[in-house]
Amino acid sequence: MPPNLLSSPSSGRSKWSNTAWRFFQAFFLLAIVFSCIRLTPALPAITGFDASNDSPDIASVGPTVYMIRHGEKPDEGNGLDTEGLKRAKCLRTLFGASGKYNIGYVMAQQPKSNGKRRRPLDTVKPLARDLGLKVDTSCDRDDMDCVVKIITGYKGPGNILLCWEHERLTDIATALGVKNPPTYPWDSFDLIWTLPYRYKAVTRIKSEKCPKLDKR
C-alpha cells in the first residue's frame, strides 16, 4: 500500500527528519494550489462600465433654478400694489436664510429708466437685502441668451431665484433646454417652478402659500 504523503513519518523511517518532512508537506500543498489556479478559466473582462460614474461627481452638480412671477400689480401705473408688497414680504421668509431653498443668487429682469418693468425687482429686492445679495438685473426681459449665460455660468454657492414677467418664464425655460414647458397662468402670482440642474424639465410647480394671499 502506498504511503500517505501528508501523514507524519513513522518512527521507523529515520531517514526523514521532522524538519525535512514539514518542508515536503508545505511544498506538496503549494503545488496543489498552483495547479488549481492554472486550471481555473480566466474571467471575462467587464465592459460597458465606467468606474468614474459609480458615484455622483460633485463637480457636475449645479444649482437648482426657482422661477417665480413678480407680485400683484395695480390696475394702472408701475410697481406693486398692496398685495404685491405683502408677497414681497412673504418671500423674505419663504426663500430666506431660514427656508429650505438655499438661495445664493437672485435675478430679476432689467427695469426701464421710466419705472416700467420694475415689478420683478421690487418683488425680490427685500429678500436679496436680507440675504446680503445684490439682485442681478443685467438681462433685458426678452434677452433669453443673457439669462441662459448667467444661469449656466454660475459657479457660486446655493441655488438661483429668478423673478420675471409671467409670459417670459416659459421662454426662459425653453431657452434653458426644457421641452414642452408649462405656461404660467395669467391670473396667478404664487407659483414656483422648480428646474433642477441640467434644466431638462420643470419637475415641480407649487404655491408660495403666502398667508392671506394664497388659498392653494
From TrEMBL:
Q: Which UniProt keywords apply?
A: Membrane, Transmembrane, Transmembrane helix
Q: What sections of the protein cross the membrane?
A: 20-39
Query: Out of the domains of life, which is the source?
Result: Eukaryota
Q: What is this protein called?
A: Phosphoglycerate mutase family protein
- What is the originating organism of this protein? Sporothrix epigloea
